[in-house]
Structures are given as C-alpha cells and as structure tokens.
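Students often ask why we bother encoding 3D structure as a string. The short answer is that it lets us treat folding as translation between two languages. Here is a chain of 141 residues written in the first language.
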Amino acid sequence: MPSTLIRLMIEQQDYPVVDTTTLDDFLQAQPHSVLFFTGDPKKYPESDDVAVILPELAAHFAGRFRVAVVAREAEEALQQRFPFSSWPALVFLRGEHYLGAITRVQNWSDYLGEIERLLGAEALHLRGVGIPVIATGVVQG
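And here it is in the second language, the structure alphabet:
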C-alpha cells in the first residue's frame, strides 16, 4: 500500500499505476517514460521525498517524459526487467528500451544533469535478463 504522500502524488498528478499486464501498453504510447518504483515506504522512507520531487522534475522537463508509478505487487517482477540496485528508483525508458535508473534521493542539480543525460542516452542492452540459457547436445551421465 502506498504512503499518503505517494497516493496524493498519484491522484493530484493523475499518474497511472502500472503492473506487469499494463506496462507494455503504457510504454508503447510514450516516447519517453519514467517508472517510479517506490518500494515499501516504511522500509524506504526516501520514497516520500521522491514523491514530492518527481512532479517538480516532470514540470521542469515540460512534457519530455511521462510518469507512471509501478504497483507495489509488480515491483519485484519489473525490477528483474529493469534492474536497479537500491530503492526508491526512477527508471527511464525510450519506448520499451531501458535507458537507466536514478536511485535514492539526489540533489536537484544531480537530478537535472542525470535526467538530461538519460533522455539523450542510447538504450542499454540487458544481457540475459529473463532469458534462460539451455545447453543442447550435452550428454549427462
């Protein structure tokens, strides 16, 4: 369950909440998007700080990306698709292509510089994510 601040951000900004079944449609409809992985707000209280900062960042970048919040029950599965190392996380995408992530709370100037860099970055190839490797022609004995 999201914290009060996160819930207010979703309502006031009219951000969609996406999960494993709705994410691809959301991504296909946007040139650039940012997925907000909040984590458990009791365990990661910085999520509330990001919930206050994120709408300001979206306003600063004036329509250059669309924000969605990842449903708590989908976060673990989607973290496997778009890996990052700490919470909360803002995951940047161009269409369905992963550009990178900003984790934890940052200084305003760091956010601005990193978001600008990510919006212009080449998509990252995520080797082996979700693809099982099976050896063929191997005799087991």
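Translate back mentally: The longest strand covers residues 97-103. Keep this in mind for the problem set.
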